[in-house]
Amino acid sequence: MAKSWATFGVDLHVEPTGPGVRRGLTEALREAVRSGRLASGTRLPSSRSLAADLGIARNTVAEAYADLVAEGWLTARQGSGTSVAPGVPPTPFGQWGSPVPAPAATSAPGRPARARPAYDLVPGTPDLSSFPRAAWLKASRRALTVAPSEALDYGDPRGRVELRTALAGYLARARGVRTDPEHIVICSGFVHGLMLLGQVLRGRGLTSLAVESYGLDVHWRLLEAAGLRTVPLGFDELGTRTEELAAGAQGGGALGGVRAVLMTPAHQFPMGASLHPDRRAQVVDWARRGDGLILEDDYDGEFRYDRQPVGALQGLDPEHVVHVGTASKSLAPGLRLGWLVLPPSLAPEVVAAKGGVDWACGVLDQLTLAEFITSGAYDRHVRASRLRYRRRRDALVARLTERAPGVSATGIAAGLHVVLRLPPGTEQATLRAAAWHGLAVHGLDRYRHPESTAERSDALVVGYGTPPDHGWSGALDALCAALPFNGTFHNEGGGGLSHGIELPHE
Amino acid sequence: MAKSWATFGVDLHVEPTGPGVRRGLTEALREAVRSGRLASGTRLPSSRSLAADLGIARNTVAEAYADLVAEGWLTARQGSGTSVAPGVPPTPFGQWGSPVPAPAATSAPGRPARARPAYDLVPGTPDLSSFPRAAWLKASRRALTVAPSEALDYGDPRGRVELRTALAGYLARARGVRTDPEHIVICSGFVHGLMLLGQVLRGRGLTSLAVESYGLDVHWRLLEAAGLRTVPLGFDELGTRTEELAAGAQGGGALGGVRAVLMTPAHQFPMGASLHPDRRAQVVDWARRGDGLILEDDYDGEFRYDRQPVGALQGLDPEHVVHVGTASKSLAPGLRLGWLVLPPSLAPEVVAAKGGVDWACGVLDQLTLAEFITSGAYDRHVRASRLRYRRRRDALVARLTERAPGVSATGIAAGLHVVLRLPPGTEQATLRAAAWHGLAVHGLDRYRHPESTAERSDALVVGYGTPPDHGWSGALDALCAALPFNGTFHNEGGGGLSHGIELPHE
Fold first, then answer.
1. Are A332 and B148 spatial neighbours (Cβ–Cβ below 8 Å)?
2. Which of A49, A332, A408, B7 has the maximal Cβ count within 10 Å?
3. Nearest CB to A357 within list B112, B149, B151
């Protein structure tokens, strides 16, 4: 039986028992804010009193509040309780949300092709051996059987309407994205989307774009090829220093005049944190005040293991955020399917950049993915994948604790990669040791923007998505053997490192 | 039993009887030239004496000679018989040819998306209702079942090797293309291929590119967006005046310094002629002398109805011709699959332009098309399509003869469109009449390059691919009703036209 909570004129229907209660409360509160029923600045009841009102556990309310603070819907201040965040606007779009948030489909950094070593822990690729071939073929058959002939013609530059409709619904419930099929543009993966955005921003007269201190150089190069200089924001223990955008808007310098920023708010790539709630609020505020644009690279948002994923930044301000998603991490990069969720004011330019018709994206995979999502097969696949990757991450952390206690896994329990902090000065030696053990893995240094002023730190970026299940244990052994503090390595401090095994020289 | 012809030291094995004798002779002669066994300038025996030697009909030899003259392998001069064309080089590639030429897979002009009228005779789209859905799904199942997991990863920027291998074999036997899988690059249809080529040519310092007087403005605009001015070559009753390239190389003017040309040699789009053998020879000679590059848009090469298709220009000089093909006409534009067959010297730049990995083309359709080709399903589909389109073209010509005798269908019996010559000054009025009859059709004027100096002529460009079979007869009726000389229109000469029906004013 649902209870109704009418404080502040809000009808909040929440099932008081069962596993969905936290989800239900979170979504109901989010919806109340979204719709304007809970206005900006409204102070919410304490978790204790709301819990008593609803007849549910206090912890459940506290967790729902925390989720919404992390997503930027609410703010929590010491001594002043929890309030609706300032400036959260009512939705200008149709109602695509559903009451149960679920795992999300998103975009993701790619990486250059390479020969596969014995063990591949380079981040960027999911476990391709678990691609759901049978379910995909089934969806393909159903999609092609019902598709009208005109679907096979030169088509709408935004991509097939079936897929845009499926995505609008899915992204609303899984990622809190607020949009409609008219403002989604299908692209050939994240890179194609970024190329289109770069072209449009350059066409608007932009000459530079802020990026994070850590990211993928292929993205920076693409933007620079489009004529946009990339300027890195600082990075500290709270994540990317988005406050520098507002300071730059006032103070000039490299960030002076910067009107767009590329970010990975849900799961910083590669550092692994989700953007601090204050910083989420700051970047949205900056965009709103100065008509700035946030490019949200939501590459692996559905793979969170310890809690509901942080909702998309786009949900906070659909007018100033481009949400970019991809099937490359949730399914396979070879599909070359991604999507841009665009502010209505930007959509016509992106459509024009893509061309008068869709020259880029094959319709058959689009139709198949639409069927795959609407049939529920996508949710099932994401759930199975989440379990697989979670087990791998847990095994990795447990093995490290046992075999390399001096190395710490950092970042949230999410995604397909983890950052392992190394003792100072040991990154290059560890990479050489890894190569010696037949292990492909990347150091953090290659993900650091060349102009970043963030403090350097030594770390490995370990992707645990790529090896097939049967290869994971061997990959872990090789990784542990390559790490300092594994019983054969000894850090002698000051960057010096003596190895218990002989290392090849570079 | 095969007879051997050892004149000039050439062993020419030809089955003397059966339906393949002309094909077999043509291919054997082509192979003898290709391999250098018949050197440039060698005079061939008369058709009478070769026929006697081989024990086959004289006509068969004459037809084979004519085919090879049309393709540029041989030259025929009044009074001096038939010789091997000057400058035809031996192949620098591996042997991909097979002894039986067959229908070809190729590239094709696209067109903007639009709402469909009652009858759609705009050229550019095949009959989508005949897309071989069941066979495609079957190929898709087989392809995905056997594909290695790594096929689903970020891949080779050239595209999947399975498809490149299938295409190398197919294009050799169907179009006389000489290449290997290493020098084929898969792209998202012709437009993507042209974008890559434009980028590469601009990167080489080119600032202009010759095009034909008639073509697609979307191609010209793409090239111009890449920084390449398009300069039209003249056009006369023999087709595109390729001799202007050599003259320009010497004389300057707009064509001075032009080092690349985009052409549709097998079936000029939209005019419908195949390039005259002399002009084929001229353009290849120009490219060879000045290190020029010919971009061969082979959009519908497999749809020839009266004889074997003219072989690809690329076969004459793989070092100076980029052969561009597409599945958009043979299967469906929505697949977004095309291919570039590249001179080895150009391939690395195109691969670099496409990116370090294949960001563009989905692997599943690539794997499916590879299976579709190698299983023979592609040949079967092309044969069935050829029959369908040939019947449509025959019906069109017959109906015109009966109902609009003053309108002549021009161009070779090939492809998915025909040009209908109209009395001078009647094109615009005819287009208005067509719209009145619910017919979408284009006038020739929109395909004429704005800087062309070719004599203007009034004509309709009628695509007979698009309507489904059941709609074709009605479309023909509407077309005939819209044409002058249909019994209700009367040309009064001098561009004046009075119509037996009332026309809407524009």
1. no
2. A332
3. B112
Residue position matching structure tokens 């960057």:
A495
Quick count: other Cβ atoms within 10 Å of Cβ B207?
A: 12
B425 burial type by CB count under 10 A (0-12 exposed, 13-18 middle, 19+ buried)? middle
Residues of B in contact with A153 (CB under 8 A): 113, 125, 128, 332-334
Asked if A221 has any chain B CB less than 8 Å from its own CB, the reply is no
Q: How do residues B85-125 score in pLDDT, each as one tens digit?
A: 876 543 322 222 222 222 222 333 333 334 457 899 999 99
Phi, psi of A240 (to 5 degrees): -70, 130
B343-392 tens-digit pLDDT: 999 999 999 999 878 889 999 999 999 999 999 999 999 999 999 999 99
Nearest-Cα distance to chain A for B183, in Å, is: 18
Residue A11: CB atoms within 10 Å = 10
What pLDDT, on a 0 to 100 scale, did the predictor assign at position A34? Answer: 74
Is A335 in Cβ contact with B362 (below 8 Å)?
A: yes
For chain B, helix, strand, coil in percent to 5 are 40, 15, 45
Q: Does A112 touch chain B (CB under 8 A)?
A: yes
Reported confidence tier of residue A87, pLDDT bands at 50, 70, 90: low
Look up residue A78 and give its two tokens.
Answer: 């010491």
Cβ-Cβ pairs closer than 8 A, A with B, add up to 146
Q: What is the largest CA-CA distance in chain A?
A: 71
For residue B13, the model assigns a pLDDT of 58
- What is the H or E stretch that residue A77 is in? strand A74-77
Chain B residues with CB inside 8 Å of A109's CB?
none
Q: Are B84 and B41 in contact (CB under 8 A)?
A: yes
The pLDDT assigned to B87 comes to: 64
DSSP A478-503: HHHHHSTTSSSEEE-STT-EEESS--
Q: Answer yes or no: are the C-beta atoms of B185 and B157 closer than 8 Å.
A: yes
Percent of chain A with pLDDT over 90: 62
Query: Does A488 score more than 70 pLDDT?
Result: no
Q: Is A501 on the interface with B (CB under 8 A)?
A: no
Any long-range contacts for A242-246 (C-beta under 8 Å, 24+ apart)?
A242/A275, A242/A279, A242/A280, A242/A282, A242/A283, A242/A286, A243/A279, A243/A282, A244/A210, A245/A210, A245/A282, A245/A283, A245/A286, A245/A292, A246/A282, A246/A285, A246/A286, A246/A289
Count of CB atoms situated within 10 Å of the CB of A445: 15
Q: Chain B closest CA to A145's CA: distance in Å?
A: 8
Summarize the confidence of residues A74-92 as an average pLDDT: 67
Residues 128-187 of B with CB under 8 A from A: 128-129, 131, 133, 136-137, 140-141, 144-145, 149-157
Contact A151, A367 (CB under 8 A): yes
User: Which tokens hold the place of B104?
Assistant: 């070809």
Confidence (pTM): 0.78
Render the burial of B474-495: b for 16+ CB within 10 Å, e for the rest. Answer: ebbebbbbbbbbbeebebeeee
Decide if A140 and B137 are in contact by the 8 Å CB cutoff: yes
Q: Could you tell me which residue, A24 or A263, shows the higher pLDDT?
A: A263
Residues of B in contact with A465 (CB under 8 A): none
Cis peptide before B504 (omega within 30 of 0): no
Give CA–CA dist A494/A481, Å, rounded: 22
Q: Do B359 and A111 count as a contact with CB atoms less than 8 A apart? A: no
Tell me the two tokens of residue A380.
């099932």
Q: What values do phi and psi take at B496, rounded to 5?
A: -75, 150
Task: State how far the Cα of A343 lies from the Cα of A275, in Å rounded to an integer.
Answer: 22
> Buried b / exposed e across A262-295, counting CB within 10 Å, b at 16+?
bbbbbbbbbbbbbbbbebbbbbbbbbeebebbbb
Is residue A14 within 8 A of residue A2, CB to CB? The reply is yes
The reported pLDDT for the residue numbered B27 is: 79
- Residue among A140, A153, A334 minimizing CB distance to B334: A153
